[in-house]
From TrEMBL:
InterPro entries: DAP_epimerase_AS, DAP_epimerase_DapF
Known EC number: 5.1.1.7
Pathway(s) per entry: Amino-acid biosynthesis; L-lysine biosynthesis via DAP pathway; DL-2,6-diaminopimelate from LL-2,6-diaminopimelate: step 1/1
The reaction(s) this protein catalyses: (2S,6S)-2,6-diaminopimelate = meso-2,6-diaminopimelate
The species this protein was found in: Actinomadura graeca
Protein name (database record): Diaminopimelate epimerase
Enzyme active site: C98, C98 (proton donor), C229 (proton acceptor)
Site (Could be important to modulate the pK values of the two catalytic cysteine residues): H172, E220
Subcellular location, principal: cytoplasm
Keywords: Amino-acid biosynthesis, Cytoplasm, Isomerase, Lysine biosynthesis
């Protein structure tokens, strides 16, 4: 099986080109690929499959039906998006969206000659997401509007943290903390109420370190602590903006500021947030109707698994 390895701010992925959707990718196979000692090692798998093929076979249809049950948006094989990002967490579970993954996915498509630099839609289980990228450099993604869903809480070793529940296609709980995020023990999963998060949740802890500038760490559903989480950075920016609005430091309506730099993207303006993660830095732009994520996407290796290994 051919694979490519890549990362976005050190959130790393095994990319599996399966253009015609012939691969029966089981949760066990995903977990073995992502194993950092006995496998290739990654936070998740990005299967690259034609959207039409995704809906053509019974195994793929079953996967989509299962996930779309709880999704906010669904789409069918009639979409114009040629490529579907089939994202899996390191434990083999399926997730609706991956913000770092979709940038790496887009970079792979361009470098493999399967798509041209420019702007186009990628199909995901959370719906279509528009990406914009050049022949090299950062990738920008229209992540859709982050949706604030109310309060929630998480705990670490008995200490309770209040947070905001945010949907970025997948579920997040963004908790503001006072001290440096490096001080938190994320060696184990934070506790949360399964009645509030029946499908599990990605938990972010963030601290404001400047104007529209936050640092964060994340414990991801299905992958554990990762060095970055793109959907998580959008959730944190949305939560921090809501916090600032509540304190009167930000307008509570659609965010407005100088147009963001950077070019070939459909960003008309919006409030630009800098989000520092252990693996680097990304930019989140909160526009009136959506949220954009901009950051690096790097391919580092490619190869082939040994026959019979999986
Ligand atoms: N790392 C991703 C998020 C991957 C999915 C997440 N673990 C979930 O289960 O929802 C990102 O960059 O957004």
């Amino acid at each position: 099986m051919r694979f490519v390895k890549g990362h976005g701010t050190e959130n790393d992925f095994v990319i599996l080109p399966d253009l015609d959707g012939t691969l029966d990718l089981t949760p066990e196979a995903v977990a073995r690929l992502c194993d950092r000692r006995a496998g290739i090692g990654a936070d998740g798998v990005l299967r690259v499959v034609r959207t039409k093929a995704m809906y053509a076979t019974s195994v793929n249809t079953a996967l989509n039906t299962a996930v779309n049950t709880g999704a906010e948006e669904t789409h069918g094989a009639d979409t114009d998006a040629e490529w579907f990002m089939d994202y899996r967490n390191a434990d083999g579970s399926v997730a609706e969206m991956c913000g770092n993954g979709i940038r790496v996915f887009a970079r792979y498509l361009v470098e493999a000659g399967l798509a041209a630099p420019g702007e186009w839609d990628v199909a995901t289980r959370a719906g279509l997401r528009r990406v914009a990228l050049g022949a090299s450099g950062d990738v920008t993604v229209d992540m859709g509007p982050p949706r604030l869903l109310g309060q929630g809480e998480a705990s670490i070793a008995g200490e309770v943290f209040q947070g905001r529940r945010v949907s970025v296609g997948n579920p997040h709980l963004a908790c503001a903390v006072d001290g440096p995020v490096t001080a938190l023990d994320l060696s184990r999963a934070p506790g949360f109420d399964p009645a509030v998060f029946p499908d599990g949740v990605n938990v972010e802890f963030y601290r404001t370190v400047g104007e529209r500038h936050v640092e964060m760490r994340v414990y991801e559903r299905g992958s554990g602590e990762t060095r970055s989480c793109g959907t998580g950075t959008v959730a944190v920016a949305a939560a921090a903006a809501a916090e600032a609005a509540a304190e009167g430091a930000e307008p509570s309506g659609p965010a407005r500021s100088a147009p963001a730099e950077g070019g070939s993207v459909p960003v008309q303006g919006g409030a630009e947030w800098t989000v520092d993660v252990p693996g680097g830095r990304v930019t989140v732009i909160l526009d009136a109707g959506t949220g954009f994520l901009r950051g690096p996407a790097v391919l580092v290796a490619e190869g082939e698994t040994r026959p019979g290994w999986l």
